[in-house]
Every structure is written in C-alpha cells, then in structure tokens.
Amino acid sequence: MARDLLLQMKGVQKRFGGAIALRGTDLSIRAGEIHALLGENGAGKSTMLKILAGVHVNDGGTIELGSKPFITGSPQASIEQGIAVIYQEPSLFLDLTLAENVFIGRQPMKGIAIDWAQAQTEAARLFAELGVPLDPKRLARGLSIADQQVVEIAKALSMNANIILMDEPTAALSASEVERLMTVMKSLKAANKAVIFVSHRLDEVFAISDYITVMRDGATVSENAVSVTDLQKVIKEMVGRELTELFPKTENKIGEIALEVKDLTNPAYFRNISFSVRRGEIVALAGLVGSGRSEVARAIFGIDKYTAGTVKVNGKELAKGSPVAAMAEKIALVPEDRRQQGLFMIAGVDRNISMESFDRIKGKLFINFKKERALTEIWRDKLSIKYAAPTNPVESLSGGNQQKTVLAKWLATDPDILIVDEPTRGIDVGTKAEVHKLINAAAGEGKAVLMISSELPEVLGMADRIIVMREGHKVAELSRKEATQEKVIAAATTGSKGA
Amino acid sequence: MNFLSRLKPSGREGSLGIILIVTIGITGLINPRFLTGDGTRDLFTSTAVVALLAIGMAPIIIMRHIDLSVASTVGLTAWFIADLCAKHPDFTWVQCFIIGPLIGMVVGIINGLLVAGLRLPSLVVTLGTLYIVRGAVYVISNSVDYNAQEMPPSLLRLGQKVYFGVMPFTFVLVIFAMLVTAWFMKYRKAGRDCYAIGSNTHAADLVGLKVFRRVFLAYVFSGAMAGLAGVFYIMRFAQVDSTAFYGQELAVVAAAVIGGVTIAGGSGTTIGATIGALLVQTIQGGLAAIGVDAFWKSAINGLLLIVAIYADRTLARKSENALLAQRIKERA
Known about the structure:
The complex is a heterodimer.
Chain A: E1 5-16, E2 19-30, E3 34-38, H1 45-53, E4 60-65, E5 68-69, H2 75-80, E6 83-86, H3 98-103, E7 109-110, E8 113-114, H4 116-129, H5 145-158, E9 163-167, H6 175-190, E10 194-198, H7 202-208, E11 211-216, E12 219-225, H8 231-239, E13 257-266, E14 270-278, E15 282-287, H9 293-301, E16 308-313, E17 316-317, H10 323-328, E18 331-334, H11 338-342, H12 349-354, H13 358-361, H14 369-383, H15 399-411, E19 417-421, H16 429-444, E20 448-452, H17 456-462, E21 465-470, E22 473-479, H18 485-494
Parallel strand pairs in A: 3-10, 3-11, 6-9, 9-10, 15-20, 15-21, 18-19, 19-20
Antiparallel strand pairs in A: 1-2, 1-4, 4-5, 7-8, 11-12, 13-14, 13-16, 16-17, 21-22
Helix pairs in contact in A: 8-18, 15-16
Chain B: H1 2-7, H2 11-30, H3 37-62, H4 70-87, H5 93-117, H6 122-141, H7 153-160, E1 162-163, E2 167-168, H8 169-187, H9 189-199, H10 201-206, H11 211-237, H12 249-258, H13 270-289, H14 297-331
Antiparallel strand pairs in B: 1-2
Helix pairs in contact in B: 2-13, 3-8, 3-9, 3-11, 3-12, 3-13, 4-5, 4-6, 4-11, 5-6, 5-11, 7-11, 8-9, 12-13, 12-14
C-alpha cells in the first residue's frame, strides 16, 4: 500500500501529576483508511485523542503530520492543521441552527457581514454529501445523537479536515444509526480522508476498519491490518496482563437465595434481566460502561423505576421505586460516584459514617454525639480509615479513604444485601486490596454481595458468579470456574457466549 | 427598509411587538391621552435609559452572564459629569457624550477582567461592583447635589429635543444603538460567538472561540452603554444626587428577559430587549393612566416578569416536544 502517511506518533508520553497516562504510544495513519483504536478503560485512548485535539500537550515523543511536526497546545491549532475531533458527547451549540454549528467561527462573509444564505446552501450540500439531508435552518436542540454526529462530521468536512477522530461514536446509537454512520465513514474513506475511531464494540471494529491499533496501560501493543489479525488475538492483546494482583478469595458458605431479580425491564436501559444472589456469595455484574449495569442496581435499590419484572428479597417481593423500602429490607447500595452520590463531601467523616444509622446514635431527644464518635471509631478501626480528626470534611481525605468511608456508611447499617458499584475506581492498588478484603469479609458474614465492576481482574478474582451485560441485555452467566478474561470480554463486546 | 428586513426579527420579537401594540392600544382606549403625541413622547423619554441599558446587557445575558453594576454606573457617570460641568462651565453636550461612556468603560473593564479573566461568577462579581461603584459615588459626592443651572444648556436642550412631536433625541439614539447591535449580533462573527458561548461554553473552548475576548468586550460595551445612560439621566431629570438611579439594575434585567433574552443564555436580541423595556414602561404608564395606585408598580413588574418567563418556558417546551415527535415520526 503506497498511501500517504498522514500522521505518525512515536513514543508519545503523557503524565498527569504522578499518574502516567501514556508511556510510549505509537500510531501511524494513512490517507483513505479507517483505523480503530482499541484498549480497555484506562489504556490511554482518550488521552491520545485529546493530544491530537490540542486539549492536552504530550510530555515526550514525536508527532508528525505528513512531514511537518504537529503543533500542539490549542484546539484552534489542531483544527488549522486539519484534525477534527468528534467527541463521545457531541459538543454542538443547541441554541444555534445547524448551518451555524457547521460554520461557527468560520462563517462565510459577504463584505463585512456574514453571508447566511451561503452558509445554509453550503451546509445543505455537506449534509447531502453525507447522505443525511438535515434542514440547515433548524436549531440543533432536539437533534438525536446520531444526527448531531452528522453535523459534527459536516463541520469537519467544511474545515477541510483530513484526519477525523471519533471517540466511541457508536456508543449511544441504535443499530440502524450505526449502519448509517458506517456508510458515512466509508464515504469519508472514499474521499481519501483518514478516520480514527475508538470503539468497544469489536464486531463493528472488524466490520469497518482497515487497521487496528491495540493499546494497553498507556502503550501501543500492536498495529495490524485487519486482514492479518482476528478477534481472539485482539482480545488477548487488550487484556494482556496476567492476574497479578492477588485476590484474597475466601471460600464462603453459600446459603439461601437472598436477592432474586426476575425479568427486570426498563426499556430505556435494560430488558429482561434475571439473576439471583445467595447469602455468602459474591456475584459480579460485568460489561462495558453504559451496558446498563448501574441502572439495574439503581432499579433494585428503588432509585429508578422499572416497567416490568420483580425484585424479591428473601422470597418477599420488594416495593418498586422506594429506597426506603429497600433499606428496610436491609439492602445497601454503595454508588459508583462517591463524590456526587455517596458522600457529603464537606461534612465530617463522623457525620458521613453515621448518616444512615440514625437509630444507633440518637439519644432521648437529640443526637448523642458520643455515640456518633464511638460508631465512627468502630468503623475506623475495622476499615483502617485514616483521618486526622473525625470531624474533618471527607473531601480532605484521599480517594481510598473516601471510598472506605462510603463503605463504612453502608456497612454500619448492617445490610443483608450489599450492592457495590465500581468499588475500587480511582483508588491505589494497596487500598484496592483492602477493599477487596472487606467485600470478602462481608460475604463471609453471610451477606449477599452484588458487585459491579469494569475491572476484569477484580471481577474474575472476586466473584463466585459473573453475569455479563451488553446493551441492556444479559448475555452470559459464568461460574467462577468457567470464566476467563477472553470469555467475559467477548460477551461484553460482541454478545457471543463461547470463546 | 432592506436593512430592516434583513434583521428579520424572529417570531418572538414579532409577537412581542404585537403584544406591545395591543397594550398601547388598550391603554389608549381607557385613557386617550396615552395615544396623543405627548403620551407617546413621554413613553419614549421615560424608557430611554432602561432601554439603552438593556441593549448593553443583552449580549452579556446571551453569554449566560449578568451585569448588576449598570445602575450604579449610571449614578457614577451622572454625578461625575454634573460635577465636571459645574467646574467647567465651557463644557457642552459634546464633552458629556465623550466622557460619559469612558467612565462607564472603566467599570466595564474591571467587571470584564474579573469575570472573563479570572472566570469568577458574574452574579457575585457585578453584585460586588454594584456596591463598590455606588459606595464610590457616596464618598466622592460628599452629599453634594447638582441642579439644572450647573449643567450645560446645550445638553439640556438636547434632552428636550423632540422630532415629529413624538420622538425624543435620546430615543433616536436608543433606536440607533439597537439596530447597530442587532446587526452586529446577527452578522458579525463576534456577535455569533456570543450566542455560541452562552449556548455551550465548554464547546466554545473546544472549537477555539475567543471566549475571554468576547466576554471581556461585552462588559466593556455594557459599561459604555451605562455611561451613556448616565448622560441620558442628566438630560431627562436635569438634577443629580448620589442616589441617582439607585436600585434600578433589576429593572434592566427584567426588561431584557421580558423581551425574550433568555436568562440561561444562547438566545435573544437587542430588538427584543428594547421592546421589553417599552412594554414594561407602557404597562406601568397604562396602569397609572387607569388610576391604579403607584404602590402597585413593583408588584406588577414582578408579576410581568414571571408571566414572561413562564411564557418562555412553555414555548420552549412546546417546540422541544414538537421536535421530539418529529424525530420519532422520522424513525418510524
């Protein structure tokens, strides 16, 4: 293939404070190709895109556009160098018309005034070229995500971009919209543009791309033409690592069914989800971000409503849409986003831990602060939470200690059913192991644990059973014995059960 | 006429205009004096200051910011100019029209640097400058007042000047400012950037719009308009003390919002803001004309504001639902 090399990245590095996001990434892109960028969460794909977009500046390595060095540093500079980025969340101006969105900052002029007629004609032409005849005079507000992407692509074309980056463009699209987007991508390719896209849906990746670059832990693992690689190989490269962290999995006595979910459906997020969790058992809900896992947990706990199905606790049906009822049945939900949903960041550690255990700290008339202090100390010792004073605001704690505080808050309610959503996100390895130990201990006490996690080693290391979700459906249920990284990834990304 | 038709007021300004005309009509039916040349002239004279400020503030609200310091700036400029004129009897209207906006721009520059430069919340910043500027007037004025005899006769004559028996000179300038800014906001890139910034500041950064420059200059412009409004104030009342135009900033915000400048940013025009100012004044004048007690004035203003924002939300929701329905239909 003697196509022009449009972009070459060599040994690109990027640090954020102490955390290394990219440790030496290579990527080469030719004109007229569709290039998929793959990797697990945190592999560094988004950082790569953001460097090319001019949002971040790389700390090391070289980036060349054609034969010229790439000028980093501002979105404007990237645009001028022919790079257009379409973010996962399209960033349109909803109060402006489509024509204006396409030409914002570069409106065609007639004398000293913007030539609106020409902007509209030109936008209409671009939409037609992409095969999606949108009305250039309508406002962007109310446009579907798919159509918003079309507007973004038209914008890229109008800027004469020759490299178009798309960050998970299909994540929020329906099947027919994906098909339409693929047609658009092919037309870009036919126009000799380069398309780089990030996707977790491997079936799509293999259907459309010419090249596949796999990233892992901030470095490029492989770059291959699609013809010389295959799904199995790519999955292996994405996962790569062995289970290095030791998970102190203890064999617990498995008891009665504590939580039973049957045909749970909320058409917007998930359909016909059924599973059960026994006492002493850890069940993991695996799948990609956005596959509906957290929504299932929220529905069980009563934060969101569901339209069909039942949730039973110890054989008794649980009222829907009521966290109060769920808590009365001794269910606890440790949410995914501790800062927004789990903690009162400016309140003290003591106040946070005792938040859901009011009965334990109340005196005759008023709150008994001695009891609150005592309760806090019990959990500080059990979870080895580190803080200077119990009244210190939680926001002054490290991420790991914050996470332990949320766990303490819910463990203090002595739940029978513990639901934890991404319990170790954003905390360091040492604290991770401690959190794992705590979850295991909870199961050891006979609690039923439902754990949502995007980290495969955690899922495989901790769970007695693994339920894999994809696009709102349960696609696999694997026992601890049969589960492998490859099987879980294959199910989560393509829906296939065997691997 | 070609120029006017190119400004093409959208549906919202059109319906506002109709509401204004109907309100004037009703008031005129109840009290025919309202429709006479004198009545119309009074309406324009009394609206000029607020309308000019609303035109200055519209770009700021469109960018999802606010400028609460304008009324204090009017007070500062009015007092300063009166003071200067008292000390320099040779001053004519020309000096006033130059110095006024310059004083206002100083306040605008401070606001702009704090809001755009340090990215501090504009509500708090301009609340702060509201008090600081007014406080400065109190300190500098030292309780000295100025009356007509200390002001340049040429300026006061200009304040009395009326064209065709109905159109005061000040309101001619208002219309001129309105048309120029409306054109600028629709046909210049800088104007369009304002709408983009108010619609989605984050995206504005991503596409490389000059957010700092636009926000900063909008505050300088608003300051200049407030300075000019200070001169208008003298022309209308021919007397100034340190409490001049005290507490009127929210009347300006109200006029803009009633005129369809969305408080959440992203839409609205200076034509709407001007009609909003006229509408508020007409209703006030109308109520006075039918004998409603003046004590009701501020309560009715508040009611009008809530009605306006309710109408705005209802319209927005309706069009959103229509778009959604259209999308579902297209998909089917």
